[in-house]
Amino acid sequence: MKKTALVLILFYSVISYLQADNTVPFSENRHAVSICIGTDFSLVTIQINYTQSFYAENLNRDIILDSGISFPLFKPDLADFRIHTGIKMNSVQTGNFHIPVSLKLLFRSHSNAAYRSTGFGIEFALNPGYFNDIFAAAAEIILDTEILTHIKHSNYYKNTIYRDALSGWYAFTSDTFRIGARTGILIGGKDEIFLRGGYEYHGNYNLKIPPFYAITGNNVRF
Q: Which domains does the chain have, with CATH numbers?
């Protein structure tokens, strides 16, 4: 218990000092590697990303490609992770008011005493807000849908909870809706520090406590 409390104190201390993709728009440096930590589908999750931006002349927009992996910091194992890859661009760009839109493909794996699951999903996000070359502040609206999941129930689950549980593929097994805010500041043209957080809703039968997410990170551009 003392060890857990110490880790949490350290974690929230890190947040006060400092996601996946960028918040401040890209300019000269078009590549970035970022590391994030926060309450993100587990109590403390760590995420590592690679991001690349390029200018699409026919659209007069920057296109941002993003990929990464995340896993729980407490008791990490090979069965608990999330991999994503996606694309982002501005749907509206009027002066410093932008509405970035992103779409990500997700692959998730999870394991506990009751079951082992692997699934495929998508995440759609809108981030309307203020953006300039060194600072950004925006809202965050995200819908995360698990489209297809393979579930394998353990012998423990069958012996103690439900003997006739059927393992196999299940469609549209979960949804997560997030609404919050994000902000970031770019230092020296290469070092972005950003913070995201807000409320999340998982449905009536997914009792995640507390119902919020909070993520902070450092994005190094090159």
A: 2-221 (2.40.128)
